[in-house]
Amino acid sequence: MELLARSADELLIRLLAEEEAFASALSGGGGGERNRPLAAAAGPSADGLLSASLLAAAAKAAATDGESSSSDGEGGETGKVSTSSLDRALVAAGALSPALCERLLASHLRKSDEMSALITGEWYMRRNHFPGWARPYEHVSKIYASLNRKEEARDCSRVALSLPWWTLGSGFREAAKLAGLPEDGKGARAALEAAERGAGGLPPVTNRDERQRVLDAFAAVLDDGACSSSSSSGSEVVDWPSFAERGAGVLEEGGEGLRGLAAFVRGAV
Predict the structure, then answer these.
(1) Where are the domains of the chain?
(2) Level-2 CATH architecture, domain 98-198
(3) DSSP reduced 3-state for 189
């Protein structure tokens, strides 16, 4: 599963900034609402989301050479935008996403700037940007592996696997392999728990109320889904609808207070 943004506002800020940059690139910034359909649809609710500095950065990105992506306007024009310039502005604005952070990492690696890539990787993981999400640790573990930093890759992947497995980006088996753990869920879980106990962690879980017990059981269903993947064209594929149905059934055991969440889970796949 992919985390697109930390909040609806941050997602809208990023989409509006990208739209503004491409609109500025098309026909020298012309086109008005034709090339800004999201801003037109958002109307007054979007007022104030884009700061003056971010608007200026979007205009600058449209005029800056470098790593770029292109977009076609409704009139057939093509505009190019410096994605690296816009990404830096979005980071400054606090509109983060895992994909944006990973683009910044990739830009350093393309320049063979290993030190900047490592510093950016630490920033991506350690600043609590995405609490409870495994993908930052998983991604940086792959960077470490590509740089032949095997011990750091292993440790980082183990941190990723200590978090919910359904928040991994590339799948459970790849993370387990980098971590040096069994590539089955039960074996990996047992190995992680044994390591934690050996380090003095994992105190016994006590006094869980019924709601927490049900939520823990639901999380376990999602983790089971994440490690049940089959390989297709080099990617790990999960039959999420069946696990969503199982998870919704578990949530319904929690009574009226969790039935709304059960309905949401069923409707999300």
Answers:
(1) 8-93, 98-198, 210-267
(2) Alpha Horseshoe (1.25)
(3) helix
